[in-house]
Amino acid sequence: MNIFPEAVSTYAHEMDKLFWLITLFAGLGFFITIGILIYSLIRFRYSPQRKPMTFRGNTFREFRWVALGMALLAFADFYVLYDEHDTWDKMMQSVPEEKDLHIAITGRQWNWIFTYPGPDGKLYTADDVIINEPNSTIHIPIHKNVVFDIRSVDVIHSVFLKEARFKYDAIPGRTITKWVQFHRPGKYELICAELCGVLHSKMRNFIMVESEEVFQQWLDELYAGTNE
Predict the structure, then answer these.
(1) Higher pLDDT, 224 or 111
(2) What CATH number does the domain containing 176 carry?
(3) Are residues 167 and 145 both part of a single domain?
(4) For residue range 97-124, what is the model confidence (pLDDT) as tens digits?
(5) How many domains is the chain partitioned into structurally?
(6) Rounded to whole angstroms, what are the CA distances from 31 to 20, 69, 74, 143?
(7) pLDDT tens per residue across span 77-91
(8) Among residues 43, 75, 164, 204, which is most buried (max CB within 10 A)?
(9) Is 166 a member of any domain?
């Protein structure tokens, strides 16, 4: 059973595996701690026949248990860091040199603005095409490296594509460049995951993932519409 939304991007399954790994270690720590607490409550519970006892500290035995707990915690932390390295590098550090599609996403109160490169194929030139409509649907090709430049013009927003496990903040004054590659066609929500004002819930757009041929047809129609 998978409690997550459908995983449709290059690194979505890797993110899910990391979630379960961290949950495993955190769960073990939780149950061990609670188990020791419950054992102590039962083992040393109040009884009228029990006489008061005087305890003297034992520095070595106390340090031994503290050191064991610290060693187990350090092992869990370093194991997670080791296991996540490739996924983290893929998501956060490296942007593919081959940019099949380059799109700018700008957050504002309360709508997403999408900027596509124009017929010259280059973003940030005079023929760029801007889609600035509430609840609009943008299109991207399947199995292609799509690079997003994420920014904001007012407050902090957050681009969230749950099926792709893609979530990055849009911060005023900064451009954050990230990438994603979808492996399954379909229509997916693109929402704001950062509380950004009274109409935060209205920041809901969609991404249509489709074959390269269908995408190119849509793009041609987009260009034709801007020239009318």
Answers:
(1) 111
(2) 2.60.40.420
(3) yes
(4) 777 899 999 999 989 999 999 888 888 9
(5) 2
(6) 16, 13, 18, 42
(7) 888 888 777 777 776
(8) 164
(9) yes
pLDDT of residue 1: 53
**Coil/strand/helix, residue 70:** helix
In contact, 98 and 81? CB cutoff 8 Å: no
Q: Is 214 exposed, middle or buried (0-12, 13-18, 19+ CB in 10 A)?
A: middle
Report which secondary-structure segment, H or E, holds 225.
helix 212-227
Rounded to 5 degrees, φ, ψ at 126 are -65, -25
Q: In which order are the strands placed within the sheet that holds 137-141?
A: 137-141, 204-210, 186-192, 157-161, 166-170
64 and 164 within one domain: no
Are 190 and 139 in contact by the 8 Å Cβ rule? The answer is no
Residues 39 and 126 in one domain: no
| pLDDT per position as a tens digit, 200-222 | 999 999 999 999 999 999 998 88
Q: Are residues 135 and 61 in the same domain?
A: no
Backbone phi, then psi, for 41, in 5-degree steps?
Answer: -65, -40
Residues contacting residue 41 through CB under 8 Å, at least 6 positions apart: none
pTM of the model as a whole: 0.77
- Same domain? 77 vs 134: no
pLDDT of residue 226: 65
Whether 2 is covered by a domain: the verdict is: no
- The predicted pLDDT at position 174 comes to 93
DSSP annotation of 5? P
Q: What is the phi/psi pair of residue 60, to 5°?
A: -65, -45
Quote the domain boundaries for residue 170.
101-227
pLDDT at 48 over 90: no
